[in-house]
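Incident log, structure service

09:12 report received: a user says their structure output differs between two submissions of the same chain.
09:20 pulled the input from the user's history:
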Amino acid sequence: MLEAREAVRNLHPYRPPLAGRTGLRLDFNESTVGCSPRVLARLRSLDSELLARYPEREPVEKEVAGFLGLDPERVLLTNGVDEAIHLLCSTYLDPGDEALIVVPTFAMYAIFAQAEGARVVEVCAGDNFTFPATDLLAQLSSRTRLIAVANPNNPTGSAVAGNVLRQIAQAAQQAAVLVDEAYFEFHGETLIDYTRQTENLFIARTFSKAYGLAGLRIGILAGEARQMAMVRRVASPYNVNAAALAVLPAALQDQEYVDRYVAQVLSNRDRLQRELGNLGLHYWPSHANFVLVNIGPAHAEFVRALRDRGILVRDRNSDPLCEGCVRLTIGTDEHTETLIAALRDVVEQLGLRSGLRRALQNEVRA
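09:34 re-ran on a clean worker, output below:
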């Protein structure tokens, strides 16, 4: 009788709640305005000849490498950041190896590592989701072959100083160190230049967020040339589809569009955080295009109440250390005004402000 490998049978499947997503999309950290008009124009110009051919990735990789200021052999286009993670796990992990991740974080690091038969070692974030560098370094062993860090982190929005990540890469030279910069545009700090001199450092980027191309599934993996040559051995030559490759140059050329959207998000991130504070809701300052908020026991009601008002947000209650938490994606001025108005209504409807007052009074009495 045919059976999947034991490592696969033991996986907990990751099923994001994608069904029935009608309304203002503030649940998956996507762009709330979509891609550049130049991208749409390029999509409309595609013909049957392009779609009938296998896609050629290398010419577009050269353009992306030039945009990043890297040599082409150090850049691989991937089917989203998900494939970049998968390729690193396939390249460097054997059964019995260890992968270190700091939780809470993006679920696919653990899933892809476990699928290779590796043991995932979870290191819990510190107070207020601070990065536990000392605890992580203490977990290093001869079996450590992968360390994955989202910077900024999802779902917390917290960021790690570049010198800390470089220290980790230096201390774990036998391990591939992945720094996932999916939210780079909203943070502005990167370690991509250090891949020249740090052989075990890899950087992942995506065009799903600031560029509004989540539906086309295209990302970047960058690293030292010799190591990237190994990663390419396990990558399909046709991993990125023809439509994505055709429009990516147009997306890169319209940086004014991307910069305009990012500027709105950054402004509205500050605005939303101020409003959350005014409403008495506890949140964690974010370096990404979302904010994590502690709603408490009413988290599911909170999500439903916003959905009833046409706004989708993401319940993160089941993530490690995130009990009662909900994540809110940040969009344009108009979208933020809509969200804030709805938040005021929902906080009043669910009595969250009075609930916070009671909690504070009980704390004082204690």
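09:41 both user submissions now match this output. Likely a transient worker issue. Closing.
09:42 reviewer note: The chain has two domains: 6-29+256-355, 37-253. Residues 357-366 have pLDDT under 50 and may be disordered.
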